[in-house]
Automatic annotation (TrEMBL):
Signal sequence bounds: 1-30
UniProt-listed Pfam families: Esterase_PHB
Signal keyword on record: yes
Keywords in alphabetical order: Hydrolase, Signal
Membrane-traversing stretches: none
SUPFAM superfamilies reported for this sequence: alpha/beta-Hydrolases
Alphabetical list of InterPro entries matching this protein: AB_hydrolase_fold, Esterase_phb, Plant_Biomass_Hydrol_Est
Biological source species: Streptomyces gulbargensis
PANTHER family: FERULOYL ESTERASE (PTHR43037:SF5), UNNAMED PRODUCT-RELATED (PTHR43037)
Source domain of life: Bacteria
Keyword check for Hydrolase: yes
Protein name in the entry: Poly (3-hydroxybutyrate) depolymerase
Length: 534
């Protein structure tokens, strides 16, 4: 198959796939439990389906066609037929998004049947009778309606039970009742409210009659390491993120027979794309149905490359990074997702369990420091034993930052650290520092070694970090919280020969009194997962 040609044409494709955006406010009305670090364990999983939007729609179709013996149906928003691009950037641009080049449906059918005959994909006969849901909006100028129509036609050629929804005025987006965008727009976060429940419709077509949705908070949102499922052990090498997610309802965790939906975000919707985070996971309106219909939802994550190959974190549907097998058996992203599916079904050899070390902070070196917002007049805080470690602006007008120390020499020598995160416990506070100013963030700076001397000192308030903002702690107002996973740079900064210090502080000084105390009665913990080469 021809390879993509030209940096300028690749850039054009990536710009066309999704409009340029900046991260926006969280999805209106969406609810989800906070992610909990974990692994993909085996459940009693029966039928498996795929669904996606834009590049994720193309990937959902690739999974269904390549592994029709596993996937019993699929749903796609704003995407075209199986391997529409055929490894050509020109075709992807002009036939699979725009309509300036003919699609040639007969040629796509021949290609699919030939691959089946060669064993490069599962037998196409298995597509007969499979439910397929196809959604296209009248205002989608990114993947135009004739391209979406061709997807419905392609599955129909193999006897699938196709339901096509083309009555909506949607732009280029996943359509959901939780979408913050108006129906016709094409803009971040590509979650549009069109006054219809398209997720309910697609699930009804794939699964049969479904119960009304629940709250979407009755299960667990597991954050897992995608590297464990990637060929070669590196998700980044495939333009996938280190982190993936799976929503597991309580019924499935308790042993009920459940179905599995693989839900694939579009370009610029991945967790690792410019702070987009879990907005697709929370706003797709799938977890709500999962709670009431014994449905596990797997959310694999693509990630942007630092080069022009895939800067917007799209799924591979045109053959980037030299993967000629991207749409069939052996495709690197396809096989990574299949490994996740097999893990959830308890099939095959699961990846080796990572080693884990839970490090408690060193009480004698922990504490907090306070200063004016500009860092002047810094002093060591004195209320740790009474209330805990202070973060935010106190009633005295001073801005507090907490410092915690860990003996990271306890990580086994020679082990490759794959993930790490902090766990905190709230012990008091006043006001909402995350809302002062709106969107404020509690960040974790990482220092390889100590900020000054390892004993707390006033200068720790403004001392340089090895990695600033290496993790983030979500808003919480009672109980405990788990930070995001440390960034790759922060993992590299862990001092394997001694102490690593971390400083917790808000990105902006709260305008008024707004603070929290953490970990009065127990130390902060740093959980580190690693792999050994032996």
């Amino acid at each position: 198959m021809p390879r993509p040609r030209g940096r300028s044409r690749l850039a054009a494709l990536l710009l066309c796939v999704a409009a340029v955006l900046a991260p926006s406010a969280g999805t209106a009305g969406a609810a989800a439990p906070p992610p909990v670090p974990g692994t993909l364990r085996a459940y009693d999983v029966g039928a498996v389906f795929s669904a996606g939007v834009s590049s994720g729609g193309y990937m959902a179709t690739q999974l269904h066609v390549a592994y029709s013996g596993t996937f019993e149906g699929s749903a796609s928003f704003a995407s075209g037929p199986y391997d529409c691009a055929r490894g050509s950037l020109t075709t992807a641009l002009n036939a699979c998004m725009d309509t300036t080049q003919p699609l040639d449906p007969a040629a796509l059918e021949r290609l699919t049947r030939e691959r089946s005959a060669q064993g490069l994909i599962d037998p196409v006969e298995q597509l007969a009778g499979d439910p397929v849901y196809v959604f296209g909006g009248a205002n989608d100028t990114t993947v135009k309606p004739p391209v979406v129509n061709a997807l419905a036609d392609h599955f129909g050629r193999f006897g699938a039970r196709v339901r096509q929804d083309r009555s909506s005025a949607a732009g280029h987006a996943w359509v959901t009742p939780l979408g913050p965008n108006a129906c016709a727009v094409t803009a971040s976060p590509y979650l549009n409210d069109c006054g219809i429940d398209a997720p309910g419709a697609l699930l009804g077509h794939l699964l049969g009659p479904v119960a009304a949705p629940g709250s979407g908070t009755g299960g667990s949102l597991i954050r897992f390491d995608q590297n464990a499922y990637a060929p070669g052990g590196s998700a980044a090498a495939l333009s996938m993120g280190a982190e993936g997610f799976a929503y597991v309802p309580a019924s499935c965790a308790a042993g009920a027979r459940c179905r599995l939906l693989v839900a694939l975000h579009g370009c610029k919707q991945g967790y690792a794309y410019q702070g987009f985070g879990t907005r697709f996971v929370e706003g797709a309106h799938l977890n709500e149905y999962a709670d009431t219909n014994d449905l596990i939802v797997l959310y694999p994550q693509a990630a942007p490359t630092a080069t022009l190959e895939n800067p917007n974190g799209c799924w591979n549907w045109w053959g980037y990074l030299g993967d000629r097998a991207y749409a069939r058996h052996g495709g690197k992203q396809v096989e990574t997702v299949m490994a996740m599916v097999r893990a959830l079904r308890g099939e095959g050899t699961p990846p080796p369990a990572p080693g884990r070390a839970v490090l408690s902070s060193t009480d004698a070196e922990d504490g907090y420091v306070k200063a004016a917002a500009d860092g002047s007049g810094a002093a060591v805080g004195t209320l740790e034993d009474t209330y805990g470690l202070a973060v935010g602006r106190g009633a005295d007008g001073r801005v507090n930052r907490a410092v915690v120390s860990f003996d990271t020499s306890r990580i086994p020598a020679g082990a490759a650290v794959t993930r790490a995160w902090l766990t905190l416990a709230r012990s008091g506070g006043s006001g909402d520092p995350w809302a002062s100013p709106a969107g404020n963030r509690l960040l974790v700076d990482v220092r390889s070694g100590c900020f000054g001397g390892c004993a707390l000192e006033a200068a720790d308030w403004s001392a340089a970090a090895t990695v600033a903002g290496g993790a983030e702690v979500p808003a919480f107002f009672s109980g405990g919280a788990v930070s995001s996973e440390l960034s790759a740079a922060a993992l590299a900064a862990l001092n394997r020969g001694g102490t690593t210090q971390m400083r917790l502080g808000f990105a902006a000084a709260p305008a008024g009194t707004a603070y929290l105390f953490v970990n009065r009665d127990a130390p902060v913990t740093l959980t580190v997962e690693y792999r050994t080469t032996a």
